[in-house]
Amino acid sequence: MASKKKILVTGGVGFIGSHTIVELVEAGYEPIILDNLSNSKIGVLKSLEKITKRAVKFYENDCNDISALRNIFRIEKNIVGVIHFAANKAVGESVVDPLKYYHNNIGSLVSILSVLQEYSITNLVFSSSCTVYGQPETLPVSESSPILKAQSPYGNSKQICEEIITDVFNSGKAIKAISLRYFNPIGAHESALIGELPLGVPNNLIPFVTQTAAGIREELTVFGNDYNTADGTCVRDYIHVVDLAKAHVKALDKLFAVKDEHYHDVVNVGTGKGESVLSVIHTFETITGQKINYKIGPRRAGDIQEIYADVSKSLEVLGWSAEKTMGDAILDAWNWQKNLKNLNLV
Ligand code: UFG
Known about the structure:
The chain is of the alpha/beta class and about 350 residues long.
C-alpha cells in the first residue's frame, strides 16, 4: 500500500484548521499539526481524535521559530506539502497593534517559504481572504477583480502575503502554490465536537448570535441598517467551514496533479450567494426556534457594504463548489454552542 502523503498544517488546532484536519484524514492524507495555541485550545486535539478515530501528530511551536520548523521537517522526513493557516485574524486588533500582524502573519509565511526551499518541498496552500478586494465595484467579485488598498493591517498582511508568494513564483524558483480567498467561514462540524472558539467577546456575527441565544451575551447589535442593500444591512457570502475545509483538500489534490514544479493560482472560496445580517438573524430564529435579542446600532468602522463571490473558478480549477446551506451552517453552529459546556477544551 502506498504511504500516505504527509501534510504540515500550521494553525491546525484553530477554527478552519481543525475542520481541515478532519477532511484531510478522510481523504487519505496524513496531517501533522503545528500550532502555538495562541488562539486555540489544546483540547481540540481530543475532539479531532474522536472524530477521526486516530491521533493526529502535534507540535506546539510558533511558525516564526525557524529552527523549530526545520526540526519538524527533519524529524518527519517526508513532508510533501504545507497548508498555512496560522495567523492573527482580528481586524480591529490589527489597527491597534499593527506590528503584531506584520510580525506574525508575514514573518510566519516567510519562515515557511524559506524552510520549504531548504527542503525542496514545493506544495503550499495559503489562507487568504476576500478582504483583499475591499469594496468591489462589481459583484459578484472574481479573482481578476482589482485588489484595492487594504482597510486594515490585517487585510494588508494578507495582500502582502499573496505578493510574497507571487514574487517567489516570479523568481523562477520551484514552487506550487494556491492561495484560497475565503469569504465568511461559519458553522461547525456536524458532530458538534469542533467549531469556532472565540476568546472573549466575539467579533464575528455567528458566534455573537449563538452566544446571545445561549444567554452569554445580553444583546446583539446589528452594525448599521442604512446601507444601500435590500434591507439596509451589510451583505456577505457565508461559507460552511466544512465545505471550506474540503476546498483545501481539493487544492492539495490539484497541486499534486500539476506536474510542472512551477505553478501559482488564487481561488475564491465562497457560495456565490450574498446574505444580509438581518436575514442571517431571521434564518437563525426560524431554524433553531430561538429568539435573538437584537438592536440596530451604528455602522462598524471599516465594514464594507456588500460582497459575494464569483465561484466559477473554484469549480473550474479545483472541481469544488459549496454543498451545505446557510441553514446547515446555523444548525451546526448552534449545536456546537450548546455542546461546548460538555467539552473540556482548556
Ligand atoms: N455584524 C453585526 N454585529 C456583530 C458582528 C457582526 O452586525 O456583532 C455584521 C458586520 O457588520 C458585518 C457582518 O455582520 O456586516 C459580518 O461580520 P463578521 O465580523 O462576522 O465578518 P466580516 O465580514 O467583518 O469579516 C470577515 C472575517 C475577516 C475578513 C473579512 C473580509 O472575519 O477575517 O471577513 O471581508 F477579513
